[in-house]
Design a protein that fits this description.
alpha/beta; TIM Barrel; 2 domains; 8 strands
């Protein structure tokens, strides 16, 4: 039983007041690995073409301990669908994605979140750009409201001014807003604000939760989280990518791999990141460190798999349904320690 379940809380803000909330992300990467999304465009066509795959991943994340079913509408906006010639399916994808998320959420008392994201066409200070982007946010938020989501996440936005457009659309719709920025190589937003300054502006504009997602892995996101936590009084979110980034290569887009000569354009991002993937124990350590800073909206973004979310839940002291199958190496055929393991196997373990 989670802290939220124990308290009987139902809304996002009630659950956050009762304890940490986990929101599993990473749908694009996980479904791409499974063959249901194309890397590059990263448009969630699977919502219509393979809804069973989307439901299955929702269900896996729910079993692993996610408190939120995030509708798979990342990049389901007018600009992205226009690029692949499917703008006519825009509303159907958005509404269907929310319905799929709700179907699974009902199986485990999870919240349902709508999702809007970076437009990729926003130009800071350009009125026409702001008008087009705000219209995109308005229509996605409108469909989410119609479908009865509990709150909306606006994420992976690198301009605070663009994030404010998303926030305005969400607050005008009367829903709680989680606003997560993506911080790239330089630890600043694209208009030059520190994460702390950005978080404060968003809080002052009415955001219920502010934080970071995507781009940076646990090691390079964590230092920025402390700055945000000190600058704001609202709830703070942290959803790193599941990759080992470093001070020299702080984002998963900047990672390099000199040992493999077969990578397209010699760039591991996005389809050759496997050697950099965080293990479940690294995610558990990040969870504990983020909680120590006062972060209480937690998740994993690109690269996340259900075992990462289970590890996050267990690091918070929870035992989600998937914990029934957490590792028990005491019964391994060679590495086990229980009496039933043949002594000959245990002694041979050094030669494995």
């Amino acid at each position: 039983m989670t802290d939220a379940e124990a308290s009987g809380a139902s809304s996002l803000l009630e659950r956050l007041a009762a304890g940490p909330v986990i929101c599993a992300e990473g749908y694009l990467f996980e479904l791409e690995r499974s063959g249901y999304v194309a890397a590059g465009p990263y448009v969630p066509e699977a919502v219509l073409e393979h809804p069973d795959a989307v439901i299955r991943l929702h269900r896996d994340f729910l079993r692993a301990g996610s408190d939120v079913m995030l509708a798979f509408t990342y990049y389901a906006h007018r600009e992205k669908l226009r690029l692949i010639g499917k703008e006519g399916a825009l509303e159907e994808i958005n509404r269907t994605a929310i319905r799929l998320a709700r179907e699974v959420a009902r199986e485990g008392d999870a919240l349902v979140a709508g999702n809007v994201c970076n437009s990729n066409i926003y130009v800071d200070g350009e009125d026409e750009s702001a008008r087009r982007v705000r219209a995109m946010f308005d229509e996605q938020v409108g469909w989410a409201v119609d479908e009865g989501v509990d709150f909306i996440v606006a994420e992976t936005i690198s301009y605070v001014s663009e994030a404010l457009l998303a926030l305005e659309a969400i607050k005008e719709a009367g829903l709680p807003a989680v606003i997560n920025l993506a911080i790239f190589r330089d630890p600043l937003t694209r208009e030059g604000l520190t994460p702390a300054e950005a978080g404060k502006r968003l809080e002052d504009a009415g955001a219920d939760v502010v934080g970071l997602n995507c781009a940076r892995g646990p090691a390079t996101m964590l230092p920025l989280l402390g700055e945000i936590r000190e600058a704001v009084s609202c709830h703070v979110a942290a959803l790193p990518v599941a990759y080992r980034t470093s001070e020299d290569e702080p984002t998963f887009l900047s990672l390099s791999d000199s040992e493999c000569g077969c990578i397209p354009e010699e760039r591991p991002f996005p389809t050759a990141l496997d050697p950099f993937t965080c293990n479940r124990y690294e995610i558990a350590e990040f969870t504990k460190d983020a909680r120590a800073l006062g972060v209480n909206y937690l998740g994993v973004c690109c690269g996340a798999a259900p075992h990462h979310i289970r590890s996050m839940a267990e690091a918070l002291g929870r035992q989600p349904p998937a914990s029934k199958y957490s590792p028990d190496m005491t019964r391994h055929a060679y590495l086990g320690t229980v009496d039933e393991i043949p002594a000959a196997n245990r002694s041979f373990a050094r030669y494995l």
